[in-house]
Amino acid sequence: xxxxxxxxxxxxxxxxxxxxxxxxxxxxxxxxxxxxxxxxxxxxxxxxxxxxxxxxxxxxxxxxxxxxxxxxxxxxxxxxxxxxxxxxxxxxxxxxxxxxxxxxxxxxxxxxxxxxxxxxxxxxxxxxxxxxxxxxxxxxxxxxxxxxxxxxxxxxxxxxxxxxxxxx
Length: 168
Ligand code: ZN
Hints:
Helices cover about 20% and strands about 35% of the residues. By secondary structure, the protein is α+β, with helices and mostly antiparallel strands. It has a single domain (about 10-160), classed as Peptide Deformylase (Alpha-Beta Complex). The strands form 2 sheets. It has a 5-stranded antiparallel sheet with strand order 1-2-3-6-7, with helices on both faces. The mean pLDDT is about 95. Zinc ion binds near residues 100, 144 and 168.
């Protein structure tokens, strides 16, 4: 495994619509392992392939399923070709930071819960139901695959005094 460089704005790759993954080969496995390592080192709780300059539809997320349970272990999700297939009507505001936009946070409205469908690292279908922060992370990461940054959606952005813990 190797750390990859996280690209930051205004890198063009962050604005591109990423290509679907079609080959589940060794190169993909290496990319996934590198992305997990890079996300953990950042540290962050989510990372999309365009953030390491690879324009492919692939995300990794590591976050506790139940954010209210402080003892809950973070769970690792690798989703290839992720798609949000369902979402709640209900939305909520939250403050997000992005590993590709250092020094800025913003208040973004997201769906409270989503269903994500895609494939695992071996190409098998997978489905995840997420709520709250986990749902927010998935929405943020899928946006990256479509060239959308949180600053496009934020009602306001600002520079926080303290760095944000859960960047994605
Ligand atoms: Zn981000």
